[in-house]
Design brief:
Order of helices and strands of chain A: HHHEEHHHH
Largest sheet of chain A: 2 strands, antiparallel
CATH class of the domain at 6-84 and 126-144 in chain A: Mainly Alpha
CATH architecture of the domain at 6-84 and 126-144 in chain A: Orthogonal Bundle
Number of helices of chain A: 7
Oligomer: homodimer
Largest interface: A-B, 57 and 57 residues
CATH topology of the domain at 6-84 and 126-144 in chain A: Arc Repressor Mutant, subunit A
Strand order of the largest sheet of chain A: 1-2
Structural class of chain A: mainly alpha
Number of strands of chain A: 2
Shape of chain A: elongated
Helix content of chain A: 40-55%
Radius of gyration of chain A: 18 Å
Chain lengths: 159, 159
Amino acid sequence: MLRLSKLTDYAVVVMVRLGRGEAVQTSPCIAAATGVPEPTVAKVLKILAAAGLVASHRGARGGYRLVRPLDAVPIADIIAAIDGPIALTACVDGGTSCEAQGLCPMRGRWDPVNRAIEAALAGITLADMADPGLSFAAPVEAAALGPLALPLPALHVAE
Amino acid sequence: MLRLSKLTDYAVVVMVRLGRGEAVQTSPCIAAATGVPEPTVAKVLKILAAAGLVASHRGARGGYRLVRPLDAVPIADIIAAIDGPIALTACVDGGTSCEAQGLCPMRGRWDPVNRAIEAALAGITLADMADPGLSFAAPVEAAALGPLALPLPALHVAE
DNA sequence: GAAATCAGGACCGTTGCGGTCCCCTTATCC
DNA sequence: GGATAAGGGGACCGCAACGGTCCTGATTTC
């Protein structure tokens, strides 16, 4: 299905959530606000932090914050952080060389396809995915609602 | 990794192979020519036939042939035939409705991403992927080598 | 010093995919 | 008309990846 992983979807939700409300937010708080299970949120945030998409601060009053604003984060970065580099097949861009190097009739043939997809994903930012006319109007208020404000058990990734 | 399935890759190889040489080719013949295991080739061809991308002819002297020329088959069709419709997440285009219908903050937000990818994949045909100046030189000879002629266990999809 | 919070793994169950095999139907050829 | 060649449509199984959870340790604030 050319489907991306659930974690990637969660990552987008979490990042968008980080883009609103207070600058620094804890993972339990984000979990409560988004409806994503807390351990999963923590896992996603750790990955995003390792990728440099969010910055973390440990200790009491710690939490996560965005490094770049939403409109400066193409979803390609999210996908790459969670699912790894975008590569439809294994042997693109001189990656792990297939055993049939010279014989392989498809040698390098997938590259333009990959580039087309990368270009498509690089042109869409998280700001484009954050609902423009909704809930962005009251960022601080949404944060003030605190835990359990938005019960979104399965999100749209369900099934 | 936003990776497509191996079968899709095999399908491209098989389709390109069908685009050369004789009009009607049997699955064992294609398997021998491409190095893909025969049962797998048969499986791919059955799926492609069900999708209407190739036409089959049963009985002695039967086989498969292309319905459209390579330059009239966008790879999006291949991917859709093998991996199913292109849908990064489950709830696009009004598919299986997620439980958080109205609340879901990402409601419909993935749609433009899907469309961008679809557009990118629709613009590339199998003819673009068929290597223009390589290995096309000796198609029949390769077939004559018979099974095990091309030990390409993993192709470039490996890993 | 105590509490809060992130860091980094380890750990399993489930799912889907890759790959193979079987039997049946259909069409051609002798 | 029988033998043979070929596709049709499944069933089947092993494996790897993913989703999801939990635990222990390190770090910072109060």
